[in-house]
Write a structure and sequence with these properties.
The chain starts with a strand and ends in a 5-residue tail after the last strand. By secondary structure, it is of the alpha/beta class. It has a 6-stranded mixed sheet, with helices on both faces. The chain has one domain (3-191): Rossmann fold (3-Layer(aba) Sandwich). Strand 5 and strand 6 (184-191) form a beta hairpin. Helix 2 packs parallel to helix 3 and helix 5 crosses helix 6 (145-156). 36% of the residues lie in helices and 16% in strands.
Length: 196
């Protein structure tokens, strides 16, 4: 049985300014984001890991680099775990919304870029790939907020359903266990430290 940690990248200026990033905006971490990355390294430096998998986007790659160096691991890049493409919203403000995550679940039209159902299919593929290739390994997966929220829906096998508890802060993570019957068991959501 393997453990899977799914983490959201560190903060960027887009996060700070409350601007949608998505897959089409490839920005670097800001100083707080670099601190987030160092905090993740400190939290996981003594945690048993076998593999590190990361989105190809800069903010995720920069977030995982300190931990990968600490562990002396090569980072495996999966395009499959890049953030959802947000279409016409990329680069625009979400400061006027009470809950920008909920907005995505309620507004799923063609202008929004990648439909939620397609993002959910990607999350299902990530889940399957992890079971097929990493069922007995401890995996650290660095990705993005909306995609990881949808991944929680896929783990629960509930379809695309908005759940506030699935939201991840920058540099935070969810923890799952792959069980003997090749299912995911949730060990903790939006964590600051691993569940032992």
């Amino acid at each position: 049985m393997g453990m899977v940690y799914t983490a959201r990248h560190g903060q960027t200026d887009y996060n700070l300014k409350m601007l949608y990033q998505g897959a089409g905006i490839d920005v670097s971490l800001n100083s707080k984001g670099r601190q987030d990355a160092m905090r993740v390294k400190e939290i996981f430096k003594d945690v048993s890991l076998d593999v590190i998998i990361c989105s190809p986007l800069k903010r995720a790659q920069e977030s995982i680099l300190p931990l990968a160096k600490e562990k002396k691991f090569e980072v495996i890049t999966w395009r499959l775990i890049a953030e959802r493409y947000f279409g016409v919203l990329e680069g625009k403000s979400y400061s006027h919304l009470d809950d920008p995550y909920n907005f995505f679940y309620d507004n799923n039209n063609g202008e929004m870029g990648e439909p939620m159902e397609i993002a959910y299919q990607r999350a299902e593929l990530v889940k399957k790939r992890l079971i097929d290739t990493c069922a007995d390994r401890n995996v650290f997966l660095m990705s993005h907020g909306i995609l990881l929220s949808i991944f929680c829906c896929a783990v629960k096998e509930e379809g695309v359903v908005y759940r506030p508890e699935h939201r991840l802060g920058n540099g935070k993570f969810h923890q799952f266990e792959i069980t003997e019957n090749e299912k995911f068991s949730i060990k903790g959501l939006n964590l600051d430290s691993p569940v032992r």
